[in-house]
Amino acid sequence: MKTNFSTINFHQIKLSIIITNAEGMVLLIKEKVQKRDRPLWNTVKGTYDNYEEDILQTAIRECEEEASVKVRLTHILGVYFIREKLKIILQLGFLAQIESGIPKAPKRNIQKKLGEDISEVKWFNKAEL
What we know:
The mean pLDDT is 89. The protein has helices at 55-67, 108-114, and strands at 12-20, 26-31, 40-42, 44-47, 70-84, 87-100, 118-124. Strands 1, 2, 3, 4, 5, 6 and 7 form a 7-stranded mixed beta sheet that branches. It is 16% helix and 45% strand. By secondary structure, it is α+β, with helices and mostly antiparallel strands.
């Protein structure tokens, strides 16, 4: 079945950013989200909903907010369409490298303001992933 992209109404645009280093390690955040009973490791994520910035700026800002680092986006990993009942979500995946900053969980007062619950930020090698 062909998709007519001009008629698709996206309910959300989600971003996922995989931050890597020169050794091939991946930076993950340990975060508690509402739909889970405990914190889980995940990539930096976000929703594009601030239309005063473009999608790339949103991805970069999410890395600052969730991992306390400034990044350079190096590649787009994929564009995915997710159907959840009557909603269509556009998911964009990016690869990034740190330009400045030391990865750490944001301060609690900042997290509270942003509605985040990040307890840890940690590098993982391929075997650990």
